[in-house]
């Protein structure tokens, strides 16, 4: 049995601060977005991925991979978004078993209206607290950790 490599005091403080920041930032961004637009942060994430592609449509597995969500979470969330008219599911003409998640005009209007306030909140709550060197360092740190995660494979 291997002995765990425990975090030292500095690592423990940094890790817990990161987790606390991530949780509080996500909650506050979600609260503000919901209050201003009626969209949740999860809705916004789905809509962003759909607006990032020219056709405004993705296969569910592509969306699942991009969001890094479990299949059941994506399915339930898309059903809720579909009931609100933000997205729809369309059968694929080339593949009778396949389908697309498609951005509706209502969904496009919702994200277009929500984006300016959301970006302002991200800037106010996060980037305004950092200097240019810190933003650069954050980008490099994030890229480094993501590279390591990519090397470990999915899950």
Task: Explain the overall architecture.
A 3-stranded antiparallel β-sheet has the order 1-3-2. The mean pLDDT is 94. It is globular and about 55 Å long. 66% of the residues lie in helices and 8% in strands. It is mostly helical and 155 residues long. The longest helix is centred in the N-terminal third of the chain and has 29 residues, at 9-37. It has helices spanning 9-37, 41-51, 60-67, 71-83, 105-125, 132-152, and strands spanning 57-58, 87-91, 99-103. The two termini are 23 Å apart. The protein is built from 6 helices and 3 strands, in the order H-H-E-H-H-E-E-H-H.
In brief, what are we looking at here?
With 155 residues, the chain is mostly helical. The protein is built from six helices and three strands, in the order H-H-E-H-H-E-E-H-H.
Give me the secondary-structure topology.
Blueprint lengths: L8 H29 L3 H11 L5 E2 L1 H8 L3 H13 L3 E5 L7 E5 L1 H21 L6 H21 L3
Antiparallel strand pairs: 1-3, 2-3
Helix pairs in contact: 1-5, 2-5
Mean pLDDT: 94
Question: Gap between N and C termini, in Å?
Answer: 23 Å
| Shape estimate | globular
In which range does the helix fraction lie?
55-70%
Largest sheet: 3 strands, antiparallel
- Strand-residue fraction? 5-15%
- Which stretches of 5+ consecutive residues score pLDDT under 50? none
Q: Strand tally, please?
A: 3
Helical stretch tally: 6
Radius of gyration (Å): 19 Å
Helix and strand sequence: HHEHHEEHH
Lateral strand order in the biggest sheet: 1-3-2
Structural class: mainly alpha
Task: Offer a few descriptive terms.
three-stranded antiparallel beta sheet; mainly alpha; 155 residues
